[in-house]
Amino acid sequence: MAKGHVRLADVAKAAGVSQGTASNVFGRPEVVREEVRERVLATARELGYAGPDMKGRLLRAGRVNAIGVASVEPLAYFFEDPWARALMTKIAAVCDATGTGIALVSAQNQQKLAWNINSALVDGFILLCVEGGERLVELTRRRQLPFIALALGGADTSIPVIGIDNLAGAAMAARHLADLGHRRFAVLAIDQFGDPVGATAPGQAARSLKSTSRDRLLGYRQALEEFGIEPASVPVHGTRNDRSSVDAALDALFAMPAPPTAILAMSDRIALFAMQWLAARGFKVPGDVSVIGFDDVPEAATASPGLTTIAQPLDEIARRAVSAILGGALPDAQETLDVTLVSRGSTAPPRS
Amino acid sequence: MAKGHVRLADVAKAAGVSQGTASNVFGRPEVVREEVRERVLATARELGYAGPDMKGRLLRAGRVNAIGVASVEPLAYFFEDPWARALMTKIAAVCDATGTGIALVSAQNQQKLAWNINSALVDGFILLCVEGGERLVELTRRRQLPFIALALGGADTSIPVIGIDNLAGAAMAARHLADLGHRRFAVLAIDQFGDPVGATAPGQAARSLKSTSRDRLLGYRQALEEFGIEPASVPVHGTRNDRSSVDAALDALFAMPAPPTAILAMSDRIALFAMQWLAARGFKVPGDVSVIGFDDVPEAATASPGLTTIAQPLDEIARRAVSAILGGALPDAQETLDVTLVSRGSTAPPRS
DNA sequence: TCTCCATATTGAATCGATTCAACGATTGGG
DNA sequence: CCCAATCGTTGAATCGATTCAATATGGAGA
């Protein structure tokens, strides 16, 4: 007690019972006689015992009851990026329901990342935005805890992944617009990892580092070809998923002689920036230009007009990811979930 | 090793060194001879040892290197509410810099809350939105870890709190509008905890449960009185900080014979909803109606027009809160930080 | 050759709890 | 009145690492 810190053993001794009994008083009250229980609790209160310390308990139990969500982006990413937020909201809901804690893991530099991954007190990891983050996967694997990657499209099939069918989703988006009658398209791509921002040569884009981007682009092209539209005739502009690069892309696009009537954006974030750019320039959406996004983040529904987009089954993704970690039942291979088209106000037939 | 789990002790035995040395190989490599170090590392690799397990390490070390952020709201709150997000972003940045982890703590019901608070593996807690959450404070205090409450205005001075000067901030907001020439005001209040939503009698509002709301209201009134405006003449509408209740309040306000020319919103969220309502009804902001918010969330800057608001020093709040927990140097009493007026496009002199 | 010192390694204690086989006390039945 | 079953309690082992006083080793200086 001189330690300033009261341990279970102190309480046990003071109450004149064994440590085992004291432990039972807190962990399995029903097994100890009421009289003794009362006495121990009274002693505990008297001594100012704060209850069993998790550090000891967990060492014994082996499980922490928390999952780590890791990303190569800075920690703030979890609270700023719409997709990450939407996903975290769902994950949070699942965790809430199962009484599981969430620990956020990230780092500014590679060295700290390693340390943070290794020192996180969790039962497993969910990895976000893992493209180009081979190192994150590698570090996590070394930790030898269950983990599952989200939105990874890498070739390494030894990594458990829950992904979505980017190709089919993108095709769905393009087909939707082509069905409406559009023939002049432009693609606003996501390219975060060093690919040149700006107009991209057809061949180059297909070699994009990020398989998410690549698949979506392939999907767009595949669907457009069904309508006889040459891939080479569809300009693809890389963006950094931020306002300035989207603005730059649109500046270039609408300086062309025959600007597009339909914009295929690889993320809702890009699509929303694009809609703002268009509104500021006096273009009507969907009257002059139709815009379709990807992800279906909450903002897509509240924007005006509402953004037509491809919805990811975030609920399902979150549920599967969390239960995979908690249940230890990692999917054998890569799981791919289906996406759906959500039609809102941002798409319509082109001005005839 | 039959356990399927390799421990440090196993590695030590296999490498033919003492456990102490093996521990040093990982924790303080410089202290062990290179030759031995190599051998131990090789053995570790061979056995598939994943590195020192945090559970053991932390038991010994006593500190977890993570802080818990707790709230009575559901977990999703951290990712949805603009103020919470803005704050979390700052906290995340501070934690990033110091290599500290973040654990989110919340719960659907009181019972789970207790369990989650008690079982969170953290060195201390930051409590969010603690008004009305006496139970959260009580639970946290029982845990006997350092904690600090944010945005609490309760009377209990034994609770360490970092707060802001709501009264001065509100006064600043009202004075700003009055200086511009406005004389017809309305207040959109935050009242989440059971206070009647809708028009509020003057006396009743002052008795609001939430001291944040109360102080802001007091501040508004105090400043307006300096300009000879009767508190009783300023309608106060409670809202639930969501769109529908804000819409309802505005419906009522603008059905009055002489609607306000200036709106004092107790949060940016409310203010932004109000601006959307006004835009939808054809009112020009700031031409017809001026709007001022409170908090200065990121959205305030990107809205159009930009929202004039009272900025909380979130950086400072986050920095102090985190270092208070980590350094164990809790402020003696309640700390109150100053706020500043950020003038953007949503306020202007009234139409003459 | 012997002493002294610096450096590397060992072994045991420790952190704070849980668990479980074994033991002691009651109670009911025969 | 004895035996068995029941229930509560004990004591020691365990979880996986870190730490530190004590010891072993090797080299330099006298």
Q: How are the secondary structure elements laid out?
A:
Two copies of one chain form a homodimer.
Chain A: H1 8-15, H2 19-27, H3 34-47, H4 54-61, E1 66-71, H5 77-80, H6 82-98, E2 101-105, H7 110-119, E3 125-128, H8 134-143, E4 147-150, E5 161-164, H9 166-180, E6 185-190, E7 198-199, H10 202-206, H11 211-226, E8 236-239, H12 243-253, E9 262-265, H13 268-280, E10 290-292, H14 298-302, E11 309-311, H15 314-327, E12 334-337, E13 340-342
Parallel strand pairs in A: 1-2, 1-3, 3-4, 4-5, 5-12, 6-8, 6-9, 9-10
Antiparallel strand pairs in A: 7-8, 11-13
Helix pairs in contact in A: 1-2, 1-3, 6-15, 7-8, 9-11, 12-13
Chain A binds a DNA duplex (30 and 30 nucleotides) through residues 7-9, 17-21, 23-24, 26-27, 31-33, 36, 52-62.
Keywords (chains A, B): DNA-binding, Transcription, Transcription regulation
Domain HTH lacI-type (chains A, B): 6-61
InterPro entries (chains A, B): HTH_LacI, LacI/GalR-like_sensor, Lambda_DNA-bd_dom_sf, Peripla_BP_I
